[in-house]
Write a sequence for this structure.
């Protein structure tokens, strides 16, 4: 169990971040529209996600380990660098922080404006599709992480456990507070997940390409802190550049990334 | 049908590659060079992929903050 702890923790944090975003959408649909259709949409999305894990999980573990590590490592490294890029831009002030409270208000406004229309045995089709799409899209990233980490470590069960604990914790917290979890440090969590994905992706990808890491698996104990240190130094460097730029152009209005891009996950 | 296929492809492109395709290209290129060095030249190039990842991230951040991507 101790050996599976980093796997469970990585999947838990990644899944918790996505679950918080899904919860915001589900709450907006349920509280402003109708809970029954919202739960139906959520259940349908969870079924699709479970089917993807059930089909892809065992299939991907049949691949030869070298090919698996090369492909999965490349995907994880690309995926992780994407997360890190966004997290660094947010930390440095170039991109707006993901704000669950304002995301919730936007979803509520859209949900209130849409007409109620029953379809295919669902009382409120808008609530169903809003909930279905929100849970499915946020869940796909979790499924990707669960399958790639689980398959590479030959421990799909531990990865699923990490994801399930995160979903339960976020759902229970959401039921208790009955509001979007705006106080969750989402960017810090995304930063941490980006570091883990990039580190494991680099490690497995290079192994798949034929590299023997100095120290074997223990190399990860060096790779993770180095990736973290480099990423934090990039964030600090950009934050400083952003502040200096802000001071230099304080007399003129400046269009920043946060204004041009808006808030995206 | 074609539209559905296009949006399906666009979704997966956005999902995996994201905002800057250069990062994905650099990672794939670095992996290919690593495999070449390891198998063809007998060099254990464990250092190449981490360096390429840091360089790709720095370059992508620079492009993003200067409004080029």
């Amino acid at each position: 169990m101790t050996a599976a702890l980093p796997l469970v923790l990585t999947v838990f944090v990644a899944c918790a971040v996505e679950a918080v975003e899904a919860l915001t959408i589900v709450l907006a649909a349920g509280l402003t529209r109708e809970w029954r259709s919202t739960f139906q949409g959520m259940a349908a999305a969870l079924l699709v996600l479970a089917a993807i894990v059930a089909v892809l999980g065992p299939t991907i573990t049949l691949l030869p380990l070298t090919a698996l590590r090369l492909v999965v490592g490349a995907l994880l490294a690309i995926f992780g660098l994407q997360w890190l890029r966004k997290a660094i831009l947010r930390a440095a002030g170039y991109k707006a922080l993901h704000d669950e409270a304002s995301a919730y208000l936007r979803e509520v406004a859209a949900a209130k404006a849409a007409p109620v229309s029953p379809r295919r045995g669902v009382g409120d089709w808008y609530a169903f599709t809003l909930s279905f799409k929100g849970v499915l899209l946020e869940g796909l990233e979790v499924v990707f992480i669960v399958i790639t980490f689980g398959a590479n470590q030959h421990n799909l069960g531990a990865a699923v456990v990490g994801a399930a604990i995160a979903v339960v914790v976020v759902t229970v917290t959401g039921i208790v507070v009955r509001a979007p979890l705006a106080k969750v440090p989402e960017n810090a969590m995304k930063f941490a997940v980006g570091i883990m994905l990039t580190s494991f992706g680099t490690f497995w990808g290079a192994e798949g390409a034929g590299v023997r890491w100095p120290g074997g698996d223990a190399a990860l104990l060096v790779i993770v802190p180095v990736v973290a240190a480099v990423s934090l130094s990039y964030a600090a460097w950009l934050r400083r550049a952003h502040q200096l730029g802000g001071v230099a152009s304080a007399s003129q209005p400046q269009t920043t990334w946060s204004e041009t891009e808006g808030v995206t996950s | 049908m074609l539209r559905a296929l296009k949006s399906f492809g666009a979704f997966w492109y956005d999902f995996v590659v994201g905002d800057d395709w250069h990062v994905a290209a650099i990672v794939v290129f670095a992996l290919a060079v690593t495999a070449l060095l390891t198998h063809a030249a007998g060099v254990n190039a464990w250092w190449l992929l981490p360096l390429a990842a840091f360089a790709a991230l720095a370059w992508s951040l620079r492009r993003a903050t200067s409004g080029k991507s």
Notes: Residues 19-69 of chain B form one domain. Chain B has one domain: 19-69.
